[in-house]
Amino acid sequence: MADTNRPRSAEETTLLERARRRLPGGVLGTSRYADEAAFVVKRGQGSKIYAMTSEGSTRVVPSYGVVSSAKAALESHVRQLAMELARQGSGATANCIRAGVTVTPALLKIPESQTMIDITMKRNPTGRMTTPQDVANAILALSGDGTDFINGDIISVDGGEFVTGS
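The structure corresponding to this sequence follows.
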């Protein structure tokens, strides 16, 4: 995470303020991607931004309404951010990682989380849940050499869970 209390250049401040004007409060408050984008512009070539999304952004998931709308807004913001970073010639990219259902403290706060886990175990073709290590491995691979043209995408890391439907 970028140091949000440090002084910013005029270029960083301009991008940050444009992003803040465009984002709904909930998305900005939970993601802080506007601050990250300002930092990336300064850092430049080869910088990567990854936002965590879920299938709830495009599919109905019980008890997921507020998160669903925030994820859809986040995906839209990342597409716009990717375009703006590319137009500035910054060499930076922005993508969303759509991880499969992963047992995390956030998942366990969802009222019907056990139902989500049970359904995932039945429908994931690998027969298992996505793990934090699966996601970390994907981000590491996507941050390697030769990945600078992957920009503005939603990348699934789920063993095929998303393509099986609900």
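The longest helix spans residues 65-87.
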